[in-house]
Write a structure and sequence with these properties.
Elements lengths: L3 E8 L2 E8 L4 E4 L6 H8 L5 E4 L7 H14 L4 E4 L1
Parallel strand pairs: 3-4, 4-5
Antiparallel strand pairs: 1-2, 2-3
Helix pairs in contact: 1-2
C-alpha cells in the first residue's frame, strides 16, 4: 500500500510544507529559505531518500552542508536537489 502525508513544520515564523511518501521512503520539501535546523529535524526520520528544491536553501552554506548533516545523522539517506 502507498502512503502519502503532508505536514506543515514551523521553525520560528516560517512554515515549511514537508511531504512524506510511503512512510520514510521519500521525504521532500520544495519551499524556500530551508534552514539547517529543518534539515537536521528531517534527518532524524532517517528517510531512504530526501529531495529539496535546488534554490530553496536559506544560504549557500546550508546547501553545501545538507549532505554532511545527512551523512552524520542518517548516513544511508540519498540526498538530492532538483
Amino acid at each position: 500500500m502507498f502512503y502519502f502525508r503532508v505536514f506543515s513544520v514551523f521553525r520560528g515564523s516560517k512554515e515549511f510544507e514537508v511531504f512524506f511518501v510511503d512512510e520514510n521512503a521519500l521525504v521532500a520539501c520544495f519551499d524556500t529559505d530551508i534552514t539547517e535546523e529543518l534539515i537536521k529535524e528531517l534527518a532524524v526520520f532517517k528517510p531512504l531518500r530526501v529531495v529539496f528544491r535546488d534554490n530553496g536553501f536559506s544560504s549557500d552554506a546550508v546547501k553545501i552542508n545538507v549532505e554532511q548533516v545527512f551523512k552524520q545523522l542518517s548516513p544511508s539517506t540519498e540526498v538530492k536537489s532538483i
